[in-house]
Amino acid sequence: MSEAPANGRGRAYITGTGAVTPLGTGTENFWDAALHGKSGIGEITLFDPTPYPSRIAGECSGFDPTDFISKKVARRMDRYAQLGVSAGLQAAEEAGIAETLRKTPERVAIVIGSGIGGLSTWEREYRVLQERGPSRVSPFLITMMVPNMAAGQLAIALGAKGPSQCPVLACATGGEAVAEGLELIRRGDADVVIAGSAEAPITPLSMSGFCAIRAVSRRNEEPHKASRPFDVGRDGFVMSEGAGALILESPEHAERRGAEPVAAVAGYGRSTDAYHVTAPDTEGRGVERAMRLALEDSGLAPEEVGHVNAHATATPTGDGPETKAIARLLPHAAVSGTKSMTGHSFGAIGAMEAIMCALAIRDKVVPPTINLDELASDCEQLDYVKDDARKLPDLKAAISNSMGFGGHNVIVAFTGVE
After folding, report:
1. Which of 344, 357, 379, 408 is catalytic?
2. Max CA pair span of the chain
């Protein structure tokens, strides 16, 4: 196994993954559903959506935190933390890092981000305050609400004593977590990093806010067709929830313990549009700059990148600029907009899409973009993977694009390990 592509700054091997998503719990369930073009979008059940213009979302149906966490501990976590800890525990088990945690726990770091944190807890306890007074507010409010608690709770569950972080970068949070995990490995601050993100934004207040700015789809009668990246019929993104986690290891540590890597995180690029709080630069210059930086950091030439998992939220302000950037730099790459299936889980989605990139390289197949029936006039003509998964026998490198409110762009590059 090679250390890095030519001119790269060093890679981290991905030796385990975990996922809780609208397409299923467990990485292989999630991946199989994605490859088969299944939609995880349906009518909201987490609260009564009747009064709302948008009544659909991607919920993690069937998720039970007590499959991973004790009932007592789960009760003291917000849903976002339950999702994040569950994904992290799955990844740790798949990677088989128990011996490392036992012998050198201070060499295991955690980077689990969240764009919002414990929103459902905040809403519930604020109602308690208004209706029953301050003495009735839960003593667990603060530790359930703050966005770093998924990282903290996962560290406690595993006994991981290395550095821990919680990136908060809106919809770019998951990509930022993976990038920071790679940097911890490169600096020698950890041998193993559990990197990922979690979000549980499907709440009355959150939905009210996004309905107010008309950002979410109102295709309530056809939930499975509502998320339509690049399509002329798109009418906004579909909110979702979930979590993803990846075990990143230094190549030396992975080889020493005989781990079998799935793929490698080869590099990343970051930029800021400095343009608008919700809309990217109309020409996609910020995301293009981040893509170029990711290729430079990873030592990859543009022609080596065979696949792009696009941010592709199914909004006119986002899809067009991103496709312009891809067309200028990677016009040959197979492009997937997987939020067409998962919906948009804000801070969590970058980690889920990072897992997809890793597994695409492992299996030499990329997931489809569903609901792309007619290309919108503001989107560039690219090599979209439509309807069905596509085999790419020569796939050696892929990138995952993440773009967040505030103009944040994070691009992560992935390669194989041979």
Report:
1. 344
2. 63
Nearest-5° Cα angle at 45, 40 to 46: 105
Judge whether 408 counts as a catalytic residue: no
Rounded Cα–Cα distance for residues 181 and 171 (Å): 17
Look up residue 111 and give its two tokens: 């980077």
Q: How far apart are CA 177 and CA 110, in angstroms?
A: 9
* 171 a catalytic residue: yes
Gap between the terminal Cα atoms of the chain: 5
Query: CB-based contacts of 75: which residues, under 8 Å, 6+ apart?
Result: none
Mark whether 311 is an active-site residue.
yes
Active-site residue among 60, 211, 307, 311?
A: 311
Question: Residues 272-304: pLDDT tens digits?
Answer: 999 999 999 999 999 999 999 999 999 999 999
Q: Parallel, antiparallel, or unpaired: how do β-strands 307-309 and 334-336 relate?
A: parallel
Catalytic residue among 166, 171, 211, 357: 171
Cβ contact 227:218 at 8 Å: no
Whole-model pTM? 0.96
Chain position carrying tokens 């839960």:
138
CA distance 330 to 324: 10
Kindly provide the b/e burial profile for residues 243-275, where b requires at least 16 CB atoms within 10 angstroms of the residue's own CB. bbbbbbbbbebbeebebebbbbbbbbbbbebeb
Q: Confidence class of residue 7 from pLDDT cuts 50, 70 and 90? A: low
Q: At what angle do helices 27-35 and 349-363 cross, to 10 degrees?
A: 70
Structure confidence by residue, pLDDT tens digits, 11-21: 999 999 999 99
Tens-digit pLDDT profile for residues 356-409: 999 999 999 999 999 999 999 999 999 999 999 999 999 999 999 999 999 999
